[in-house]
């Protein structure tokens, strides 16, 4: 079993009968969702809340019942991936451009489970550029102000065109190199007009499930 499948399936142990479950986005979350689909097929009753259109399509294909976002008040557990994590359980997310929906869902989650292979662990965040979702209008001004915070910003492209998120915004990847205070930086970034949300998830994860490279899982938190 590959490491992503190993930790993805391990995370589903937190999913219990009758729960509302946040369904993450990305290559590791994929395995968790596949396992949840199998659990539903075998009689588990849950309702899922997807963090992206691609996750919604996957959940529907697996017959996982979904709860409309307008009906969501509280989510019992969310399982999602991360692009980088530190020993204090701070995260960088948004490599899949779903960071806004991911953070909205995380904000009402009682128990937030992050799944990420060991290569994504760091002493300090900064190896992975912080994705920032910005409005198309005035993006140049927004990028200028992001740069003033000390990063090297770069608009994200896909297939030679500007990537457009599920929310019809753009992504700016901000390379900081070493982030000593993710919570403080997150507040500063979100204070910039034009920034919709950023990919720093500080003090949000309850547990991070990773692996030791030898076929066993590791838990932080």
Structural class: alpha/beta
**Counted beta strands:** 16
Widest beta sheet: strand line-up: 2-1-3-6-15-16
Low-pLDDT residue intervals, each spanning 5 or more residues = none
**Tally the helices: what do you get?**
6
Shape assignment? globular
The CATH topology of the largest domain is what?
Rossmann fold
Mean pLDDT: 96
Distance between the termini: 24 Å
Share in helix = 25-40%
Q: Into how many domains do the coordinates divide?
A: 2
Describe the structure.
The protein is of the alpha/beta class and 221 residues long. It has two domains: 3-121 and 203-220, Rossmann fold (3-Layer(aba) Sandwich); 130-196, Alpha-Beta Plaits (2-Layer Sandwich). The chain is built from six helices and 16 strands. It has helices at residues 3-11, 27-41, 53-61, 99-107, 139-147, 182-190; strands at residues 20-23, 47-50, 75-81, 84-86, 91-92, 109-115, 121-122, 130-134, 152-155, 157-158, 161-162, 170-175, 195-198, 200-201, 207-211, 217-220. The strands form four sheets. Strands 2-1-3-6-15-16 form a six-stranded mixed beta sheet, with helices on both faces. The chain has a four-stranded mixed beta sheet with strand order 7-4-5-14, with helices on one face. Strands 9-12-8-13 form a four-stranded antiparallel beta sheet. Helix 1 crosses helix 2 (27-41). The protein starts with a helix and ends with a strand. The model has no long low-confidence stretch (mean pLDDT 96).
């Amino acid at each position: 079993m590959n490491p992503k499948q190993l930790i993805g399936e391990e995370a589903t142990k937190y999913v219990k009968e009758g729960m509302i479950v946040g369904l993450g986005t990305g290559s590791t979350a994929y395995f968790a969702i596949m396992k949840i689909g199998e659990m539903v097929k075998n009689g588990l009753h849950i309702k899922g809340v997807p963090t992206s259109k691609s996750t919604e399509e996957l959940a529907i294909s697996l017959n996982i019942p979904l709860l409309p976002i307008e009906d969501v008040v509280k989510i019992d557990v969310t399982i999602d991936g991360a692009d980088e994590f530190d020993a204090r359980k701070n995260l960088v997310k948004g490599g899949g451009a779903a960071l806004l929906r991911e953070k909205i869902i995380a904000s009402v989650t009682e128990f937030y489970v992050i799944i990420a292979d060991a290569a994504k662990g760091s002493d300090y965040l900064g190896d992975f550029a912080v994705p920032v979702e910005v409005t198309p209008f005035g993006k140049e001004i927004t990028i200028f102000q992001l740069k003033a915070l000390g990063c090297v910003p770069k608009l994200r492209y896909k297939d030679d065109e500007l990537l457009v998120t599920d929310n019809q915004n753009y992504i700016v990847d901000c390379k900081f190199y070493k982030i000593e205070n993710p919570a403080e930086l997150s507040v500063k970034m979100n204070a910039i007009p034009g920034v919709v949300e950023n990919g720093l998830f500080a003090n949000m994860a309850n547990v991070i499930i990773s692996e030791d490279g030898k076929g066993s899982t590791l838990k932080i938190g």
